[in-house]
Amino acid sequence: MPDGRIMHCEFRIGLSRFFLSEELPEHGGTPSPTSLGATSVAIHLYVDNCDEMVETMKDNGSTVLMEPTDVFWGERFARVRDPFGHEWGITTQLREMSPDEIQVAAKQMFAEMSE
Question: Per the structure, how many domains does the chain have?
Answer without folding.
Answer: 1
